[in-house]
Amino acid sequence: MTDITGQSLIAGEWITPAGKEYTSINPYTKEVFNAFKSCGVEEIEKAVSAAAYAYQQMRKMDGETIGTFLEAVADEIEALGDILLETGDTETGLGLARMTGERGRTTGQIRAFAAIAKKGEWVEAAIDTAIPDRAPLPKPDLRRMMTGIGPVAVFGASNFPFAFGVLGGDTASALAAGNPVIVKGHSAHPATSELFAKAIDAAIQKTGFPKGAFSLLQGANRELGTELVKHPVIQAVGFTGSEGGGRALMDIAAARPQPIPVYAEMGSINPVFLGPNTIKSTGDGIAAGLAGSVCMGTGQFCTSPGLAIMLEDANFEAKMVEALDAAPRGYLLNPRIQGSLQDAFKRFESIEGCEWLNKADFEEGSMTPPNAVFKTTGDVFLKEPELAEEAFGPVNLMVVCKDEVQMLEVGNSLKGQLTGSIHADEDPELAKAVLAILEQKVGRIIFNGYPTGVEVCPSQQHGGPYPSSSVSWATSVGADAIRRFARFVSYQATPDAFLPSALKNDNPLNIFRKVNGEMSQAKIG
């Protein structure tokens, strides 16, 4: 940790703010280290002013230039070496193996967006040429494409300090679309955030990219995030975190004189539906797989399966308890999450008809919670809305229904979720009915699997109906994440010399274009 300065980066300048001091905490030892100071209005003004200037430069850049810069960012992250892994582990307790894998995912998605920027297809160029002799009215020449929306504010996540952190998917996709990014670093891992800022600062210096394209504002005060979202220069927000935090940002953004979109990925309990005949035939394997998914990352994934909807099955319950008790206890990320999980346990226990099947000690302040399985009935679940609230940790609530009709009733009662899973090969009619419900409730439907593990690919949908996400169509993972930070502009009867390169007649990009309603590939160069 000797290379950590406690500073923030604003458009190429490392500064020490004068705001409130805060520290990060080692979950393993509860050791407090690294003093940081919070940024304030003065630092926000510097960052947004530089971002506004950089945007005017970036909006004229070609995809090759942006892609080359993103590749340099990925290279500089890898050049940090073991200090990044060790620092991330020290601030989160996630383990070096997890940190190593997450670093690979982070650089992989940055390079994927570099390739997207270079290829240029994401702009969805559409060209409808003029028909001057059309009757009764002539048709004008119309050309449309997507373009960057402007400076973007990104809020780093606590549970994925690399892949959804300072240089995670939100930042990479916003930059790929030609937008400057101002990151509000997460207060639980500021040292990790600083290292990522050093990587992108080095890439900016090596490539000559505009310095205002990136700033990191460190801070533990809510006012920092509030004032950043309020600033008129900011044109969109990327957020991964709690429903309360995301909703607060949505309200701030909506109350601006110029409202802006907030792409927030928030809480989810990710229901798993278990068919009774399927449990009887393959229940032991399902219990082992479900328990492993519940315990993965100490349950601190947005896709952790918090709910199992089923009929009474004593053997399955016993197998779940056995598997969860056999799994080692992991570490919680920070004291705030610890306190929230402690409250969730108390909330479940306070509800009549909700039983903690494998009750174990969970001392106040403990960073290693038990892997818990609770049980309730469908009747109790339907009348106690608090049971449908997320318990962020290694917890699964089994909702034992009286029949399959009630299983569907429970499914219909759920709010929007990121994922929904179905294990019902031996119950095809139930599977069909559950599928019809999940298509309206979730962003990703999983058959015979578990929701943890989000593949980064073009067909991925990591987002769902509210309150799992603020915008149901948006995804924070995969190629289409870039669409969140762009908008369409149409050009009518515009001289070729004034058109963006993707819309010119002599198009220098080898992209797919829609010409008079039909897709064709430009044969240029």
Kindly list the characteristics that best describe this protein:
525 residues; alpha/beta; Aldehyde Dehydrogenase, Chain A, domain 1; Aldehyde Dehydrogenase, Chain A, domain 2; 2 domains; 7-stranded mixed sheet; 21 strands; globular; disordered C terminus
What can you see in these coordinates?
The protein is α/β, with parallel strands linked by helices and 525 residues long. The protein has two domains: 269 residues, Aldehyde Dehydrogenase, Chain A, domain 1 (3-Layer(aba) Sandwich); 177 residues, Aldehyde Dehydrogenase, Chain A, domain 2. 37% of the residues lie in helices and 19% in strands. It is built from 14 helices and 21 strands. Strands 2-1-9-8-7-10-11 form a seven-stranded mixed beta sheet, with helices on both faces. α6 links the parallel β8 and β9. It is globular. The protein starts with 7 loop residues before the first strand and ends with a strand. The C terminus is likely disordered.
Short description:
The chain has helices at 41-58, 63-79, 82-92, 96-119, 169-176, 190-207, 222-230, 243-254, 276-295, 314-326, 335-350, 378-383, 404-413, 428-441; strands spanning 8-10, 13-15, 21-25, 32-37, 126-128, 142-148, 152-155, 181-184, 214-217, 236-240, 262-265, 271-274, 307-311, 355-356, 372-377, 395-401, 417-423, 442-447, 486-492, 512-515, 518-521. By secondary structure, it is α/β, with parallel strands linked by helices. It is globular.
